[in-house]
Amino acid sequence: MKTLRIALIGTGFMGRAHSHAWQTAPRFFDLPYRVEMAVMVGRDPRRTAAEAARLGWAEASTDWREVVQRDDIDVIDICTPGDTHAEITLAALAAGKHVLCEKPLANTVEDAERMAAAAAAVPGQVALCGFSYRRTPALALARRLIQEGRIGQVRHVRAQYLQDWLSDADAPFTWRLDRELAGSGALGDIGAHSIDTAQWLTGSQIVGVSAVLRTFVEERPEREGVVGLGGTADPDAPRRRVTVDDAGAFTARFADDAMGVFEFSRVATGRRNANRIEINGDRGAVAFDFERMNELEFYDASEEGHRQGFQRVQATEAEHPYMEAWWPVGHGLGYEHTFIHEIVDFVGAIAGAPTGPDFSDALHVQRVLAAVEESARADSRFAAVKGMTS
Ligand code: SOE
After folding, report:
1. Residue 166's closest CA among 264, 289, 291, 275?
2. Which of 193, 244, 264, 339 gets mutated to test ligand 1 (max ligand atoms within 8 A of its CB)?
3. Which atom of ligand 1 is closest in space to residue 130's alpha carbon?
4. What confidence tens digit (pLDDT) does each residue in 299-323 have?
5. Which of 85, 105, 119, 327 is the most exposed place for a label (fewest CB within 10 A)?
6. Is the CB of 345 under 6 A from ligand 1?
7. Which pTM value belongs to this model?
């Protein structure tokens, strides 16, 4: 069996989630390749060495350019802020590597277009974007039901992604609040997941939007060494200007004529990670909330009237997507499993079983993000998604 040697770039929240996934995937799934966690790359030498040792990487490095050129590396897994995605991806694809890149694909449509073009030019190399929620078994089940026609023609897509880690005005400044590094705020960080999920579930693309974006807290205190989400800072610490949105909403038109309502916020007090979607078709509906990630609600309008109502399906049966590898029925999964499944599918794609979202899917998400910003700047005027006619 051939060995895939992995280099992962980034030591933060996503670097840890992906490291755990690379560790666990081969232990629970039969992968077509042996996986070797070769090198973790970060900026700070001490932190990178400590994280690499703790998370199971054989080596640590602070030089991604050197690592990308190494002959003994097959895969580059990019877990850095969006401002570096394009440069690293282009170098990795040119060096013949397979690429897994965190979402959103880039910070601008132009960068995303360059990345998608570079990936299309090397069809033998896999380039996958990390919209990990696609790999939640309950959502994969929803997709199966929609593809089987169980909800009929889709009319409504209603998606919310609500977090509250920025509710406190003294929550510290992080790279996720800096437009130069993150591209946008709640929009690209979590709204992008809803856009990807909605298009993937329905099989239909968003063609245009009408949007609002808001920043409620314009300056936040700085704190050293913030990793991941949340926490508090010293309220007297120097403040830095927030250059992204805290929250936003948009209505959307889909290519198949469905209508969409999207809302995303990192200041939705009380909602920790409520990534929700409900889709209503003319024959039924599905509804999901990541805070109850093992469950899918399914409504079948063809049931006899006296029995109609949403049924709550626990997506933990062996025949549900990904579940055969896990626990006895009813023994649910967690956030980290979505990344494990992403690695399983990514390695499968390298062995010849295609999976999404590829870079052209992720480019379309990027174009929707840009249309949302364009519409919000123009007082919610309808903005067509680049390349789409509405
Ligand atoms: C990573 O996929 C990610 O989008 C993070 O960037 C968000 O902040 C998170 O909460 C959901 O997952």
Report:
1. 264
2. 193
3. 2
4. 999 999 999 999 999 999 999 999 9
5. 327
6. no
7. 0.98
